[in-house]
Specification:
There is one protein chain. By secondary structure, this protein is of the alpha/beta class. Helix content is about 35%, strand content about 20%. It folds into 3 domains: about 5-95, 2-Layer Sandwich (Nucleotidyltransferase, domain 5), CATH 3.30.420; about 100-235, 3-Layer(aba) Sandwich (Rossmann fold), CATH 3.40.50.360; about 255-485. The chain contains 16 helices and 21 strands. Strands 16-14-13-19-20-21 form a 6-stranded mixed β-sheet, sandwiched between helices. A 5-stranded mixed β-sheet has the order 3-2-1-4-10, sandwiched between helices.
Amino acid sequence: MRHLPQNLRTCYPSSYRTISRNSMSIALLIDFGSTYTKVAAVDLDTDRFLGRTQAPSTVDTDITQGLFRALSLLKEQTGLRDEQVTLKLACSSAAGGLRMVAIGLIGRLTAEAAHRAALGAGAKVIEVFERALNSRTVGELETAMPDIILLAGGVDGGNHEVIVHNARRIAQSRVRAPVVVAGNVDAQEEVCAILAGAGQPAYRCANVMPALNVLDVEPARQAVREVFIRHIVRAKGLDRAREYVGDVVMPTPMAVLNMTELLAKGAGQEAGLGDTVVVDIGGATTDVHSACWGTPVAMKIPMVGLQESFAKRTVEGDLGLRVSAKSLLEVAQRNSLPRDIVAALNTNQAWLRAEYLVSHTDTLPHAQAEMELDVAMARAAAYISMERHAGVVETVQTSSGYQTVQRGKDLTEVNVIIGTGGVFGFGAHPSTVLAACLSDAVNPYSLRPKHPQLFVDGDYILYAGGLLSTVYPEKAIRLVKSSLRPVETPANSTPSKGE
């Protein structure tokens, strides 16, 4: 593994800094979350983190109420004055986040390409449809009520009948969500004309799969971001915040994925960290972001399946510590997990606690038993989400006999794993939770990381770095690097197989 930049080994501890200089140039970086509105302040002159506060989000009434409460707390803690603020940027996952439907031609190809593009854009993918829409699937589409539809289908110069048919079915439906058209470029003009004729907003971008097994999701990611700013901000009630913050520039998960990619690559004179994985464990979902190609470390092993993108996000809606606590325990029962995690979660007390957490999502652990259960749940979320995100080595039968192949990304040699979210920033035993992401004997064919350096996002500002990177990428890297706190891999991090 390559050595990390020296400045990561001398991170200063997190603390609020009193603002004293009149000439300070300060950025406010805001996240309108479904539960909390978070505000971070950054000194743009020195690239220093000054402080971070949060207040309950007020999406159902006036989104600015929660924002101004958080700002008031920040001013109390740091002495911030309005005239010092020269930049405001905001992202959002409020009001259910960005709900998207992906539609493609073949499930394992263009539909999957559309699905990945939607996830990379920071969306919550609520449905994926393949082939020609019919009365049943149109009904499901109407019931889903998506914020955006990502319509793909056909490689460039290939099948165009299905995407045109699907455009007609969408135009005839009750759905009026904007459509990002990311399929066969030869059919896009006709598709957009059909949708425009029905009063349906439509936006063209490059094909998410221009050739067979070739993935190109970046144009679709950017198109979704533009549609988010133009349409979804108003639909989510976020337009009330525009007077103060300007545009809400992207969904929050997209900010985190952008920052993951920037940390891996670097920018300008600021070096990157190399192949990087970020694990974001929340109350409703666990997101894993990877920035690496993930080609086989063992060069003799061929890759099969759809090409992987450099920046990849997976989101697991059944793995959360509050809203999804019960489903997390259910999933844990069905998976092969380390024995100690299984023992901690398979108790009556764990199920009773999960039942309570689902309806009391702002609950924090206080008693020792509650803290230990939170850690066990977080370990299960980290273990299973990494299992789903990482590739796998399989043996398949071919015309010439059995062959070992790789499906998905090989993460065995990634440099860095970063944990972000409350369980890492404020919870007990973050190193134990992160260690659950590592390769082990329980699932030996999973291509999970083997020996990365482990960090936690101590200031909980990866989202803020992603926002800042849209204007100052080098400053964003320096800011986030200063938030990374190294944690040691536990000595017993090679678990035994659960029973």
